[in-house]
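The protein record quoted in full:

***
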Amino acid sequence: MRIVIVGGVAAGMSAATRAKRQNPDAEVVVFERGEYISYGACGLPYVIGGEVDGFDKLIARTPQRIRGEGVGVRLSHEVIEVDSRAQVLTVRDIGGATCTEPYDRLLLATGVSAVRPDWADTGAAGVHVLRNIPDGQAIEASLKYAKRAVIVGGGYIGLELAEALRSRGLSVVLLERGPGVAGRILDPGYQRRVRLELEKNGVDVRCGEAVESLTTKNERVTGVQTSGGLVRCDLVMVAVGVRPNVAMAQTAGVRLGTTGAIRVNSRQQTNVEHVYAAGDNTESVQRVTRRKVHVPLGLTANRMGRVAGINMAGGEAQFPGIVGSGIFKTFDLGVARTGLTQSEADALGLDAVSVDVESTDHAGYYFDAAPIHVRLTAERGSGRLLGAQILGHPASVKRIDVIATLLHSRGKVHDLAEVDLSYAPPFSSVWDVLLVAAGQASKAARRPKEDTSA
C-alpha cells in the first residue's frame, strides 16, 4: 500500500506517523511545498515577542527524524495536480522539474492561507501576514527598521501580535473593521474588557475603521489610509482571517461543504474514493449544534490527521467533532471560550440565556488573588450547557476545559453545579466561580422568557 500525504505540518505529519505505526509495511510519503515540517505555528507570535528563543524551538520533529521512522519526506515539492481516476499526482520540485507519483490512499492536508485583501497586495516592504516560519522570519527582518506598527484585524493573531510588537518596543495601532476586538470570539461585554487590556498596555485600538489603501515611499510602506484617516507606520500586519486551501481538492472532484472547507465524514473520507482530508482545510461537526463548521485550530488538525492516518492504513477510527474551544492571552489577560456565545446562540435561533459572575481565581484572602469573569450560556427550559467565556489571569482561564468536557457529553448546567471540583485556597475559592455560575445559570434557565411583545 502506498499512502501519499500532501502537506507536512500538523495534520499531515500526524497522519504520516500514525499510518506508519498502524501498518509498518505501508509506504508513506509526504510532499511539502515549504522548507519546514512538523512545527508549532501557534508559537510564532511568541518568537516575535521574544518569549520563545528562535523559530527552531517550534520544530517538533525534523525531516531526518521522520525519515528515521520510515516515512518519506520531500521538502520543496509542490503537488500541482491530482488525477483521482488514475490515482496519480503531478509533483513539481524546487528546480521546476515535474514527475508523477501514484497513490493507493491520498490525504489532502493543505491547510489554510492568510487572507490578503487587494489593498495589501502592493509589493511594498514591511507588509506581512503570519502563517508559517518564513513569514515569521520576514517579520523579524522588518522589525530591525520598524518603530510604528499597524495591525489590521482584532482576532486571535492580531491580539497576540499586539502584545508581541509592544514587547519589542514598537508603538502599535490596532484597526478592526467591526465594532469590537475579538468580535468572532466573545460577546460584546467581554470584547470591551479585552479592549481595555490592550489600551492599558499602550495599544491604540480603533474599531469601526475599514482600511482603504496603503501609502508607500521607495517601495516601503509608510502608512495605512482608513475610513477614519491616515495612520503613519513602517510595519503593517495583516490579520483579517484565513481561507482553506481547497483548489487542489476541487480539481480532484472533492466536494466542499457549506463553510467553504472540504467536506468529510467521521473517518476523514471525502466523496472521492481513496481520498481523505484533514486539518485546517477541512470542516468538522460542532457537537453542540450538530452543524458543520470550519474552525482551524491546532488540536483539531492533529486529531483529524491521526484519525485519517489510522483509516488510510487499514485501521478504524472516527473524529469525534469539536465544541469550539479556544484560548489566548494578550498582556496580562487570559481569554478562553468554548461552545456557543450568547450572540452565536441568538443567531442560530436558540432560546438561550447567559449569566455573568465575577469572582477571584482563588481564595480572596490568599495573596495574589486576581479577578476572574465567567459567562455561562445555557438553553432555556432544558438547562443544557451551550457555552462559556472566561477572562482572567492567564493561569486561571484553563477552567474552560471543565465546560468543554461537559459540552462533549451534552451536559446541563445542573451537572456542572454538582461536579466535585478540587479546592484549596491557593487554587480556588471553596465555591469555585464555575460552581457559582452554574447555580445562577440553572435558575436562569428555569425562568420563562420575558414577554417583550408589548
In short: The longest helix spans residues 298-312. Residues 33 and 454 are 62 Å apart (CA to CA). The chain has a mean pLDDT of 96.
